[in-house]
Write a structure and sequence with these properties.
Layout (H helix, E strand, L loop, with lengths): L1 H42 L25 H7 L1 H31 L16 E7 L5 E6 L5 E6 L2 E7 L5 E4 L8 E9 L9 E7 L2 E11 L2 E6 L5 E2 L2 E8 L4 E7 L5 E6 L2 E7 L5 E7 L8 E9 L5 E10 L8 E5 L6 H9 L5 H7 L13 E5 L5
Antiparallel strand pairs: 1-2, 2-5, 3-4, 3-6, 6-7, 7-8, 8-9, 10-11, 11-12, 12-15, 13-14, 13-16, 16-17, 18-19
Helix pairs in contact: 4-5
């Protein structure tokens, strides 16, 4: 019996909760409906036609004539006013937007293109070119509206004025005799000497066998390569004769083919082209006579030993500068062991190059890295 009373009480409580919830829901819906009726009743006042006054004693008669224009405007004045306001605001926004864009477009000035040249601390070479008839053209940069003196084999040959951009050009009309020439520059205002020098070799055969080099603190760079230094896929990029009597030849060829070199009639040796198409060959040739004429023959052989390309380059040996060190620019596929073998006769001396250039990992060098090679290191 106690259990039934408890269940009856629980059921009554649940019914009460449900009834209360239903009552609250109905009350909320009634209030929402009442609010909506009041809102639309007030809003309908603007569009509701005005009530006509009733005439006492006369029954209302429905008129079949259409309402006149004045009555239409009187009844629907609010929606019409809103439409006019929207159209006016739209036209105003479009007009001001277009006018604003026009003002911005007309206020942009015309772009001015200016050539920005890097500042130079000393007179610098840009071009050293040799013509077919032996004439030369030298162009470079220095301070604007000043002067540059040109020295050839330590002799003053000309003084040229620089323009507003600091550029100058020296082009003598008389051709130079065949031979070697070292060219340097000096600023006339405060006697500033050029940090770099130009070396040119003018061949009796003309420009096709002549060469122009820019000699910098980081080595030499070819400004004009003779056409005789290339035959198809075989080309010579640089020939270095070191002060200790070692000749180093670098160039390009077909990957993994063999390169042989002959100086005059003496066989120098062979090397192989790397997978990146570069090769280097260093051999001891002893003392070459300054002013003497030498012919270098370079041949590329296929896997069967057949000659597929040949280069012959004749040059006059220049005087040595007396420098104990030389510089080398690392190329793709190089390693310190090969560089040491070419420049220092023994590949095991690669550690000397690593120490000189503060290279912690001798197996890690990068293309275009400048290496100082101590060619007079004791072996």
């Amino acid at each position: 019996m106690a259990t039934q009373n408890k269940m009856g009480k629980t059921k009554n409580s649940t019914d009460n909760l449900i009834d209360d919830a239903v009552a609250q829901q109905q009350d909320w819906q009634e209030r929402r409906s009442s609010f909506a009726r009041d809102f639309f009743t007030k809003l309908n006042v603007f569009a509701k036609p005005a009530e006509r006054k009733k005439v006492i004693g006369k029954p209302a008669v429905k008129s079949r004539q259409p309402a006149d224009k004045k009555s239409v405007l009187r009844e629907y004045w609010f929606p019409i006013l809103c439409a006019f306001i929207v159209v006016f605001v739209t036209i105003w926004v479009l007009f001001n937007h277009i006018g604003h864009n026009k003002n911005i477009a007309t206020s942009i000035p015309e772009p001015v293109v200016r050539t920005v040249r890097p500042e130079v601390k000393t007179p610098a070479f840009d071009i050293v070119r040799i013509g077919d008839d032996g004439t030369i053209i030298i162009a470079g940069r220095w301070r604007r509206d000043t002067g540059v003196s040109v020295f050839m084999n330590k002799k003053l040959v000309a003084t040229i004025a620089t323009d507003a951009n600091g550029e100058f050009v020296y082009a003598p009309t008389r051709p130079l005799a065949a031979g070697n020439y070292t060219i340097s520059l000096m600023g006339t205002d405060d006697q500033v000497k050029s940090a770099d020098h130009a070396f040119i070799y003018i061949s009796e055969a003309g420009a096709k066998n002549s060469v122009s080099l820019l000699m910098t603190g980081n080595g030499s760079r070819i400004l004009q390569k003779p056409t005789s230094l290339q035959d198809g896929d075989l080309s010579i990029n640089k020939i270095d004769y070191l002060s200790d009597g070692r000749l180093v030849i670098t160039g390009d060829g077909l990957p993994r083919l063999r390169i042989s070199a002959i100086l005059n009639d003496e066989f120098l040796g062979t090397t192989r082209v790397s997978d990146y198409k570069h090769f280097g060959l260093g051999v001891d040739v002893g003392d070459l006579t300054p002013g003497g004429e030498y012919t270098l023959h370079l041949r590329m052989h296929d896997t069967n030993g057949n000659i597929v390309a040949t280069l012959s380059y004749t040059f006059i040996m220049p005087k040595m500068t007396g420098d104990d060190d030389t510089y080398y620019t690392v190329r793709r596929g190089d390693c310190l062991w090969i560089i040491a073998r070419n420049f220092m006769r023994r590949g095991v001396l690669f550690s000397v190059i690593a120490d000189r250039n503060n290279i912690k990992n001798p197996d890690l060098i990068f293309p275009n890295q400048k290496l100082n090679i101590p060619v007079k290191t004791k072996k």
